[in-house]
């Protein structure tokens, strides 16, 4: 046992990749050791920089044909809280946010069977027509899969329409956890892990970038997290081999929020396990540049601590967050830009405002 751990540590010291069994073995290391290893990698890649962007989330509808047990955001037709925004409502929100200086619109919706593809694409097209400079991040792989099944379209056709109508990059939602037995329990009607990966591969093949996520802290095992991470690493290898500019630009471990859903008796993860998961992600994902500590699921304070455990990004201002806050996260009203800057500075890191593809827009001084 001791010898195997020594061999694992030697591989890490020599910057060698770990396989699945070795990845699982990382859980035997204490938090301090994991943090040291992950932070060394983080410093080598990004120094003391902590990235964030100025963005606005828009969720056009929460009316959903699927029933995921972990989801507190979605609603059904008879639910008094169900909503669907009109075209004019969405455009009004977009115009207001862009005129106040946001750099990215992040548009993710529930799987509403009454919204036709052309209605969705019309929104994207109008936003880019009025604001060609804005970065439009929209439609998860789960939304693409639902649209394909509902309206008998191919993935390729949908992705091409997204690009034609102005979508710049894809968010990473819908990945949840790749283990299919767990997906059968928590999100049986949603896109399969195989098809989630296929959709992102097709998107990357078109020279486009996307994010990747993992929902953890529900009924999955720690070994399943390793499997999930390594499957992302494998796809990233394939995408980078094309050398056409399409790949994952960030990995986002999402902490499960336990309120107002159908998963019962789930104990909330402690900070140590959350930080360990982030650190292991940084250690294993040698080919994904950025690890995001998404403050909306982990709190601002823990996301800041995570910058010492392998993360280098805090996400963005968001302005209006509906999905995580519906499940209990304190993220409904977003976060002020100055709060990001001040918190990063007082933690002795260097705040870097970025665009959606990690081009640096402004570097702020240390305190």
Automatic annotation (TrEMBL):
Pathway: Quinol/quinone metabolism; menaquinone biosynthesis
Top-level EC class: transferase
Domain Radical SAM core as annotated: residue spans: 50-286
One Pfam family this sequence matches: Radical_SAM
Molecular function in Gene Ontology: 4 iron, 4 sulfur cluster binding; 7,8-didemethyl-8-hydroxy-5-deazariboflavin synthase activity; aminodeoxyfutalosine synthase activity; iron ion binding
Binding annotation for S-adenosyl-L-methionine: 70, 176
Keyword Metal-binding assigned: yes
EC number: 2.5.1.120
Cofactor: [4Fe-4S] cluster
Chain residues that bind [4Fe-4S] cluster: 64, 68, 71
Family: Belongs to the radical SAM superfamily. MqnE family.
Function: Radical SAM enzyme that catalyzes the addition of the adenosyl radical to the double bond of 3-[(1-carboxyvinyl)oxy]benzoate, leading to aminodeoxyfutalosine (AFL), a key intermediate in the formation of menaquinone (MK, vitamin K2) from chorismate.
Matches recorded under NCBIfam families: CofH family radical SAM protein (TIGR00423), mena_SCO4494 (TIGR03700), PRK08444.1 (NF006276)
The protein, known as: Aminodeoxyfutalosine synthase
Lineage, uppermost ranks: Bacteria, Pseudomonadati, Campylobacterota, Epsilonproteobacteria, Campylobacterales
């Amino acid at each position: 046992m001791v010898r195997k751990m020594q061999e694992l540590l030697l591989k890490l010291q020599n910057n060698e990749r770990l396989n699945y069994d070795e990845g699982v073995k990382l859980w035997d290391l204490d938090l301090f050791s994991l943090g040291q290893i992950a932070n060394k990698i983080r410093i080598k890649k990004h120094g003391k920089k902590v990235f964030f962007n100025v963005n606005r989330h828009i969720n056009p509808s929460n009316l959903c044909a699927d029933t995921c047990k972990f989801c507190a955001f979605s609603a059904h037709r008879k639910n008094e809280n169900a909503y669907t925004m009109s075209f004019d409502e969405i455009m009004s929100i977009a115009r207001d946010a862009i005129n106040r200086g946001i750099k990215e619109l992040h548009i993710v919706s529930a799987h509403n069977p009454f919204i036709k593809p052309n209605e969705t694409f019309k929104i994207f097209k109008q936003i880019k027509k009025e604001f060609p400079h804005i970065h439009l991040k929209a439609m998860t792989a789960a939304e693409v899969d639902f649209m394909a099944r509902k309206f008998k379209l191919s993935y390729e056709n949908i992705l091409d329409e997204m690009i034609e109508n102005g979508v710049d990059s894809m968010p990473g939602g819908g990945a949840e956890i790749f283990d299919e037995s767990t997906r059968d329990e928590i999100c049986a009607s949603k896109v399969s892990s195989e098809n989630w990966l296929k959709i992102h591969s097709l998107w990357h093949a078109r020279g486009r970038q996307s994010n990747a996520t993992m929902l953890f802290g529900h009924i999955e095992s720690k070994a399943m997290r390793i499997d999930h991470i390594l499957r992302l690493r494998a796809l990233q290898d394939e995408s980078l081999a094309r050398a056409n500019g399409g790949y994952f630009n960030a990995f986002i471990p999402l902490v499960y929020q336990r309120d107002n859903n159908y998963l019962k008796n789930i104990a909330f993860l402690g900070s140590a396990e959350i930080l360990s998961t982030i650190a292991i992600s940084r250690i294993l994902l040698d080919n994904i540049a950025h690890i995001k500590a998404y403050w909306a699921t982990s709190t601002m304070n823990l996301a800041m601590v995570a910058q010492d455990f392998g993360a280098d990004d805090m996400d963005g201002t968001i302005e209006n967050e509906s999905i995580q806050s519906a499940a209990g996260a304190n993220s409904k009203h977003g976060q002020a830009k100055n709060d990001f800057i001040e918190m990063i500075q007082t933690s002795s890191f260097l705040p870097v405002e970025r665009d959606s593809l990690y081009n640096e827009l402004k570097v702020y001084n240390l305190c």
